Each structure stands twice: as C-alpha cells, then as structure tokens.
Amino acid sequence: MKTVSPRLLGAPLCAMTEIRTMTPADWLAFRNWRGGDNYTDGVIGFEFEEHLARRRIILLAVDGPEIIGTVQFVLSHDDPELGDGRTIAYLQALEVRPDHRRRGVGRSLVKKVEALASGRGFAQLALMVEPDNRPALGLYEKCGFTAFKESTDTWRDREYPVLCLRKSLAPAQGSLVM
C-alpha cells in the first residue's frame, strides 16, 4: 500500500508552523517574499520602519527557515473607519504561500492579529479585500468579518475596488505588550 504525505492531502500544517514577530534578521527573506523590486522595496521599507517604531507589527508564519505567510497588525489607517488608533485596528497584507493555503495558516495569522488588537483594547478589527478574491473573502467570513462599505485602494498608481470588512473583538483576558 502506497502512503501519501499529509502535506499532499492538504492536511493542516499549524502544528509545524510557528507564527512570530518579524525581526531585523528576517528583513532579506521578507523582502524576497514581498517581491523585491524598487516600488515594493519602498513600500515594505516604510512598513518595516513602522514595525521597528511599534506603529505596526509584522507577523511571519514560518515552517523551519521558510516564510510561508505574513500579515500586519496596524494601529491606524488613513481611513479612520479602517483604523482609528483607539477602537479600530487594521489587518493588512495577509498572504499565504500558495502551496500552504487551506491548511489553517491564514486563519492562524488572522487569529494572532485579533489577539494583538484585543490585547491592546481595540474593540474592532478592519481590513480591505478585493471583491473578486473569493478564497480570502471566504476565510474572512469564516473568521467572523462582515462587509460594511465599498471603497478603493491604490497600488502602483492603479486604483482598484475593495470591500471593507470588520468584526467586533472580544475583550482580552489580559494585556499584551507591543
């Protein structure tokens, strides 16, 4: 009888996956993960500076030495309905490597951001998603997010439609330090 690796069957990898805060030693791997061209370098350079200044937390899902997912917990957003720095926090840039999707990595990253936001006293968590990104919409709906408005976002000087989603957070049992 031939045995099949659990990874080939799409089995959850969460037991093997560590979710942790990005460190300066992760910069090159993170840069490569996000693309590494001049435009992207500028954007992620800014994000990493904010991470070091504690205005956002960049989280990595790693399997051994490999980054298999990332997400960012952002304290405030240009649109106060998406992050006002007091009651609403913002979840940004959730991405899971294609060969690790549908294994619980994305959900674990979302749950970690929820815990960080709740632990800092935020009552809601918001995010933006492209309306045709059905897998992401499905994940966010399973995590309890609901759409509250349509908007637009811009990447590389191109404006595109997005749905804005949010969810209420349960009060934290204790506080987390940023």
* DSSP summary, beta strand count: 7
Do you know the CATH architecture of the domain at 18-124? 3-Layer(aba) Sandwich
CATH superfamily of the domain at 18-124: Gcn5-related N-acetyltransferase (GNAT)
Q: Total helix count?
A: 4
The ordered H/E elements are EHHEEEHEHEE
Overall geometry comes to: globular
Query: Given this structure, which CATH class of the domain at 18-124 is correct?
Result: Alpha Beta
The helix fraction, in percent, is 25-40%
Structural class estimated from helices and strands: alpha+beta
Low-confidence stretches: 1-14
How is the main sheet built?
7 strands, mixed
Strand order of the largest sheet: 1-2-3-4-5-7-6
Q: Please compute the radius of gyration using only Cα atoms.
A: 16 Å
Average pLDDT over all residues: 88
CATH topology (fold) name of the domain at 18-124: Aminopeptidase
Beta-strand content: 25-35%
N→C terminal distance: 51 Å
Verbal overview:
The protein is α+β, with helices and mostly antiparallel strands and about 180 residues long. The protein has a domain at about 20-125: Aminopeptidase. The protein contains four helices and seven strands, in the order E-H-H-E-E-E-H-E-H-E-E. It has helices spanning about 25-35, 40-50, 105-120, 135-140, and strands at about 20, 55-65, 65-75, 90-95, 125-130, 145-155, 160-170. It has a seven-stranded mixed β-sheet, sandwiched between helices. The longest helix is centred in the first third of the chain and has 15 residues, at about 40-50. It is globular, with a radius of gyration of 16 Å. It starts with 17 loop residues before the first strand and ends in a 10-residue tail after the last strand. The relative contact order is 0.14. Residues about 1-15 have low confidence and may be disordered.
